[in-house]
Amino acid sequence: MDVLVPFAASRPKTRLAGVLGPDERAEFAAAMRRDVCSAVDSAGGSPTVLSTDPIESAWPVVVDDRPLTEAVDDRLEPPVAVVMADLALATPEALSRLLGADGGVVLAPGLGGGTNAIVVRTPDFHVDYHGASIADHRRIAADVGTTTTVDSFRLAVDVDETDDLAEVLLHGEGQAARWLREAGLELEMTGGRVTVSRSARR
Amino acid sequence: MDVLVPFAASRPKTRLAGVLGPDERAEFAAAMRRDVCSAVDSAGGSPTVLSTDPIESAWPVVVDDRPLTEAVDDRLEPPVAVVMADLALATPEALSRLLGADGGVVLAPGLGGGTNAIVVRTPDFHVDYHGASIADHRRIAADVGTTTTVDSFRLAVDVDETDDLAEVLLHGEGQAARWLREAGLELEMTGGRVTVSRSARR
């Protein structure tokens, strides 16, 4: 199945500015994107990066600088999947569950109301990534056929905020996790959940 | 399978103090606990609440006021499962995947390094809930046999912080979600992930 991997190439991951500089954020975002494309490939999908700007990539790239919703919607010819480029915990197993799930529309929710992955097998679905998109996508999907939800922690964690980096250090198995370790990011215990700290800047 | 449901009965959920008063936090914690026990029951498990203090409950209760690790460890006679009482998104389906997963030890990671659910089928495993417990539990499990990890968003979200309430409003299907709605909690859109706000206090 064709799998679109949307990627924001200009000023990526600004919410990680507390621990990573601009060039580092770009490097880390690229590492996550490569991990996602590799995992999609291992799961039997054919990844195409849908990038806001030209990038170097071992995988096919199409460039579209429009907002995410429009750029994805124009390429939603079923069967097709959309998997975000910042799912640093995604494994071939998790993506196989996604791509193999039955249903006209398959949704994988993200933390905080996002929609981290979608499989579309019906021509009448459209995306809307604004706000709490998982609620909108459920509604749109309910109007056009059967909807399946994939219950996956690995697909639910998109890496946007500093705390998310703890999940990558704890559970990541790819280049992005290695990149963070080499950059000196470490788990830091707090009263509640674990977060990260940085002992050294390169 | 016997399923222990640890519950901190005294001053529960203090990190929700920004949006819920003390009595409300106790009510909400009880609603989550009931949802978890019902879901465990529907998944074919036999829930027993392991409470720090005496509570009223439709399910069996044992009281043990020691720290979590000791209280659980003393009751870890296999086969047995441990499912936290604040997994407000847990469904019978998610718990069936947990209870039905093969392996001497089955782990369901929580956000921020926690261990939200465990199945123990080997007598040599012990728990350690301090710090990033999922890393410790993986290590302990690796020493005693085969370990399986259940990849579930619904089991990964334990409700500790205000942002977690957004997950309950978005994905919850039980009493806890209803309780939040009736208390006037609503989704609030921010720049990134959705959180909650409260328009009215009862």
Q: How would you describe this protein?
A:
2 copies of one chain form a homodimer. Chain A is globular, with a radius of gyration of 16 Å. Chain A is α/β, with parallel strands linked by helices and 202 residues long. The first copy, chain A, has one domain: Spore Coat Polysaccharide Biosynthesis Protein SpsA, Chain A, CATH 3.90.550.10. The first copy, chain A, has 7 helices and 9 strands; from the N terminus they run E-H-E-E-H-E-H-E-E-H-E-H-H-H-E-E. In chain A, the strands form 2 sheets. Chain A has a 7-stranded mixed β-sheet, sandwiched between helices. Helices cover 35% and strands 20% of the residues of chain A. In chain A, strand 1, helix 1 and strand 2 form a beta-alpha-beta unit. In chain A, helix 1 (22-42) crosses helix 3 and helix 1 runs antiparallel to helix 7. Chain A has helices at 22-42, 68-73, 92-100, 133-144, 153-156, 162-171, 175-182, and strands spanning 2-7, 46-51, 61-63, 80-83, 105-109, 115-120, 147-149, 185-188, 195-198.
